[in-house]
Design brief:
Number of domains: 1
Strand order of the largest sheet: 1-2-3-5-4
Bound molecules: adenosine monophosphate
Radius of gyration: 14 Å
Mean pLDDT: 97
Length: 119
């Protein structure tokens, strides 16, 4: 896949190594970092290396990439010891969805029980 990046995108800069972050996974397509303000005992952000603004920009052409992202999330959940009891994977879209960083990312959260529906 052709990679793209946005100069002033926080996560593009972290992925490029220009800004520090606690990376827990990195490969040619997917990067995962620990959330700087965790909302659960385990809170990891899994994201594509290439810049995609949000889930609203996904198309069928991203199918393989999404499979890679969810595969990494499942592997990390097992590695972090949260897989057995269950966990949540969430992506926020836009202001009312709670999105604060405009680079597609999936919150992998576990280590406690979550309510439904979320607030
Ligand atoms: P969202 O609000 O869904 O766009 O998620 C963005 C997440 O990025 C939030 O949970 C923030 O705590 C997290 N975040 C912001 N800046 C950083 C950073 N420098 N390193 C790691 N996580 C960050």
């Amino acid at each position: 896949m052709t990679e793209s990046r946005i100069a002033d995108c926080l996560f593009c800069r972290i992925i490029a190594g220009e800004l520090a972050a606690s990376k827990v996974h990195e490969d040619d397509a997917v990067v995962a970092i620990r959330d700087i303000a965790p909302r659960a005992p385990t809170h990891i952000l899994v994201m594509p290396r290439t810049h995609i603004a949000s889930a609203a920009d996904l198309t069928p052409a991203h199918g393989e990439l999404l499979g890679r992202i969810f595969g990494v999330a499942a592997d990390l959940a097992r590695e972090q010891g949260i897989a057995k009891r269950g966990y949540r994977i969430t992506t926020n879209v836009g202001a009312w969805g709670g999105q604060s960083v405009d680079h597609l990312h999936f919150h992998l959260m576990g280590g406690r029980a979550f309510e439904w529906p979320p607030g």
